[in-house]
Fold this protein.
Amino acid sequence: MQTMHPAIVAGQHTLELAAIDPDVFAARRRQVDDLLEAGRYGGLVIYGDAQDSSVLTYLTNYMPRMRWAVALLSPGQPLRLYVAGPARDLPFVRDMTTVDALHPFEVFEQDLAAWADGEPSCGPPRLAGCNLERARDPVALPLSRVCAAEPIDSLDAELERLAAACTPLVRAKVAGAHRLILDVAQGLARESRRGPVAPALAAMDFERRAYEAGAYQVQTLFGDGASLVLEPFDGHGDPDRHASRGVLYAALKVAGYAADAFVCLGPQDDGLADIAKEILAAVREQAQPGVSVASLRATVRLLAGRAGAAVFDDALVAQLGLRIVPLADASVLSAARAYSLKLGVLRAGMAYFASDVLFLE
């Protein structure tokens, strides 16, 4: 069955094209055109794959599932989307994108060459790129051949900033993804009160339930609730190993938008839970535009130290939206962004993990 994975559909396979106003994508396209015209670029190439397609999805609503896709656009001209895989798959892609000009990837190089020829009197147009450092050889090699005489400027930072904006649509989608995590977690938590917890099996059960509830992608880590260590389920070890409690880290996408959270299972230490929640509340109150992640982390460690607890804050702040981006200490929170706040505390051999979602205006 491993060789059949392109034919296996796990979870929601479409991105609810009908649920999104086409005017949203028209407005996004105008923003990108304005950016290109300001930089005097004649075109833009955007790469996306199953690991990272945030800007591609931002403009097209398409999120590659197994292979990659490339968008080619010029200001004021229809966007063209080139999808890796056989041409027979294009009708399925059409159900997931606002783009009319769909092409198999095999014609990308010849179309790019024709575009690069431009008007003979004007010379070749300047080309910008996004996410090209991830591009696989079938994409990178045609770009290097066709654009050998003119370097491709990266617009990663500018386009990622546009894609990260927390508009009312993005806020609703991220909140919906976060709510799905909590809904699935509530069902698991009810069952975990009946007896010992097998954290690895709970992680697999969470993924199954989330897919059944409409998630597009689901990833989990698990721990035994007796330490601050979280690990992935890799098929090794003893998945039936039980503990008196457990914890899951869950990240998923719904309709292309991502959220993450911690899920505690089994009986918990109420006092430790109160400590974690109070620290999280203090961080949430402090988290405003212009505040650094380093200052939030300092608050977490100060309050945990006062409570005599060790702390897990490696993933304290992550930006949410079309992807999940963990933020380093030097990062500063921005207005019109969605974030997750996550931490864990440990005392006397018991751990509690808390999380929340934050929308900054």
The chain is about 35% helix and 20% strand. Residues 185 and 263 are 6 Å apart (CA to CA). Residues 1-9 have pLDDT under 50 and may be disordered. The longest helix spans residues 168-192.
